[in-house]
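step=encode ok
step=design start
structure_in=
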């Protein structure tokens, strides 16, 4: 069986479970379950702490896992990113009291508080900055006010929490993170198992189904070329003649976020009966 590690709690857990379920895998109904076998798909799931998943994957204890890019890099584990999963996006940045620091080189000799010690130390070293890294498990934004650090490095979404603590971000982002599927670093692209290849195709199918819809419309035959220029599809749209030979039916995959703009443009070209259908699953 392919052994897959899944986050057991936190912001990564529910989206990961939803994605695996959409990909056709059985998922647990009771959050107290730590191991779940899916014999129909020849897969076994292990529900682990998000921070530990990269370690288990890196040692080969499990064959693959879902975690955050930030947690992967901070773990120092012998695991690599296999594919991006398109959820749990975040930005990792430095912050300091308002008006005190504007660039990374000013961090030289200061104290930096973070929950991502390895990630921050590597980033500072890469940029030639020597600073003392203070490890905290949480509430990093309070470190400056409490006097144990001069700078913090943490995940930033809206920045509201930092501003509430009298801090502001500075410099370029340390990292842009999201959920990723990882595998052991010892497994090369050519050595990926059939089970992992199947998992990859299924997850890619879910991503595609979430990003695209099917668009159908009727258009006068002499306007087909103008219409399909707007909806070229992935390879090429399907064009079929209607009973009234002066009209044709067109079907194409289009990006979900462009749906209404395309419908407006097609209507202006002369298309009618424009319909949009969600895609439940696909293989490319």
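sequence_out=
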């Amino acid at each position: 069986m392919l052994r897959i590690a899944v986050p057991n709690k936190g912001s990564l857990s529910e989206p990961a479970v939803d994605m695996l379920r959409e990909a056709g895998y059985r998922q647990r109904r009771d959050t107290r379950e730590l191991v779940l076998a899916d014999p129909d798909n020849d897969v076994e799931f292990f529900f682990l702490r998000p921070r530990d998943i990269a370690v288990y994957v890196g040692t080969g204890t499990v064959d693959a896992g879902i975690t955050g890019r930030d947690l992967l890099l901070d773990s120092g584990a012998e695991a690599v990113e296999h594919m991006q999963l398109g959820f749990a996006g975040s930005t990792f940045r430095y912050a300091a009291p308002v008006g005190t620091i504007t660039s990374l080189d000013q961090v030289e000799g200061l104290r930096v508080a973070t929950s991502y010690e390895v990630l921050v130390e590597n980033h500072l070293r890469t940029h030639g900055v020597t600073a003392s890294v203070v490890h905290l498990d949480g509430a990093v934004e309070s470190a400056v006010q409490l006097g144990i650090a001069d700078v913090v490095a943490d995940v930033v979404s809206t920045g509201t929490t930092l501003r509430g603590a009298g801090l502001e971000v500075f410099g370029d982002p340390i990292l842009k993170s999201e959920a990723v599927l990882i595998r052991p670093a010892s497994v090369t692209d050519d050595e990926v198992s059939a089970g992992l290849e199947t998992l990859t195709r299924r997850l890619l199918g879910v991503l595609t189904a979430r990003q695209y819809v099917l668009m159908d419309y009727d258009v006068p035959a002499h306007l087909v070329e103008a219409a399909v220029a707007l909806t070229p599809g992935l390879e090429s749209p399907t064009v079929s003649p209607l009973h009234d030979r002066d009209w044709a039916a067109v079907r194409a995959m289009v990006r979900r976020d462009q749906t209404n703009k395309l419908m407006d443009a097609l209507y202006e070209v002369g298309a009618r009966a424009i319909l949009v259908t969600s895609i439940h699953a696909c293989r490319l």
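step=design ok
step=annotate ok -> DSSP finds eight helices and 15 strands in the chain.
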